[in-house]
Design goal:
Shape: globular
Number of helices: 2
CATH superfamily: YVTN repeat-like/Quinoprotein amine dehydrogenase
CATH class: Mainly Beta
Number of domains: 1
Distance between the termini: 46 Å
Strand content: 35-45%
Oligomer: single chain
Radius of gyration: 21 Å
Structural class: mainly beta
CATH topology: Methylamine Dehydrogenase, Chain H
Number of strands: 33
CATH architecture: 7 Propeller
Length: 419
Amino acid sequence: MIKLLLMRNFLLIIIICLPLMVQAQKNSQWRGENRDGIYNETGLLKVWPDDGPQLLWKFDRLGEGYTSVSIANEKIYITGMHDETLVLYVFDMNGQLLKEKEIGKEWKVNFNGTRSTVCINDGKLYVFNALGTLLCLDETTLNEVWKKDLLAEFEGKNLMFGMTESPLIVGNKIFLTPGGEKHNMVALDKNTGALIWSSPGTGRQSSYCSPLFIGDQSVPMVVTWLEGPKRDSTKIQYNTLTAFNAETGEMLWALPLQSENDINPNIPMYTDGLLFATTGYKGGSWLVRLKDGGKATEQIWHNSEMDNQMGGAIKVGDHVYASGHMASRYWFCVDWKTGKTVYKDNSIAPCNVIYADGMLYCYSEKGTMNLIKPNPEKYELVSSFNVTLGTNQHWAHPVIHRGVMYLRHGDTLMAYKVK
C-alpha cells in the first residue's frame, strides 16, 4: 500500500512538472515562440478605453535601443545601451528590477542602441550585439558561458546599420549569418559555441534578417534574406531569399528578388509549404511554393505595393495584413492566394504588427498603439492611444504575455493590462 501511494505521488509530480519541463525547452525569442508574431493568448480586451489600456508599470532608463522583451521562468529580459555599453536588464513579472549587468559594447554609429532581442533557451541567454559579438550567459547567474566575435572569426563584414538579426536556436544548434565569401551562414553548438558547420552560400553579406526554421519538408532548412548581386547594367538591384540545409549547411536554393536596397529585416513567414517574404524600397511582397521536398521553389505571386520594411506581417485566414513602409505608406490587406491588394488605408502606416486572440496589435511610427480587427472586407480600427513615454523612433515590436502587452519606446519599457 505504501509503495502504491509513493508511486502515485511520484506520477503526480511528473504530471505536474512535465508541462513546465517542456515549456523550459521552448525558445523565448523575437516575435514569439514560432517567430511569426502570433501570441497564443485568450480573454484579451476587444476594445480599449479611450486613453488606452491600464498602464501597470514602466521603467524609464533602459538606454538606447529597439529590442523587445523576452520572458522565461517568471523573468523579463531586455537590453539597452548607455554611452557605448550594452546593458542587460532583468525584471520580475511585476516590473521590479532584479538585475542589470554590463556585458560589452554596443552600436553608436547611427540609430544608436541595441537591435537583437535576447533568445532564452534551456537555461541560457543568447545576446548578439550590433558589432557582431555573440554572448552566451547563464540564465540564473548571468555569468558568461562563452563568447564569439563572429565577424572576426568568420571573416564577415559589418553592415551600414550594424548586425540586427536575433539568434535562432533549433535543437543543439544556434544559427547566425556573419556573411562573407567563406562563411555566409554558420551553425554553432549552443552549449559551447563550437562550429558545427559553415556554408559559403551566396558568398555575400547578411541582410539584417533573422533566420527562420522550416522542419516539415524532406530537408530541414533555415531560410533568410541575404544581400544579392549589386546593380547590373540595367540598374536593377536583387536580394536573395536563401535556404540552407539545417543539418549540413548546404545551400538548397537562392531566389533573387528585386528591390532598390539590400536592407531586408523582415523574417520570412511560412505555412503549409508556402513561404511569404516582404521587403521595403519598392521591393514588395512575394509568395513562394516549396517544391521537391523543399529543394526548389516556385513563385506564386508578387505584390509590388506592400513594401514592408521591418514591421512584420500576419496571416489571418486567407489574407495577409501588413504595413507598407517606403514607397507605399499604407496599411494593407492582401489576398493570400492571389497577392491582390484587397484594400489599403493611410491612417496608421508605417507600423509593425503582432496578433493575439483574434486581433491585430499595430505600433505605428507615428507614435500610436492601435487595435485592429482583421476584417477582409474593410479597414476596421477598433481602438488607439498615443504613446507619450519614451524616446526616439517607435520601432520596437510589442510582446503579449499572460494578458500583458509589453511595449518599448527607446529608453522606456511599458507594461499594459490588455486582458
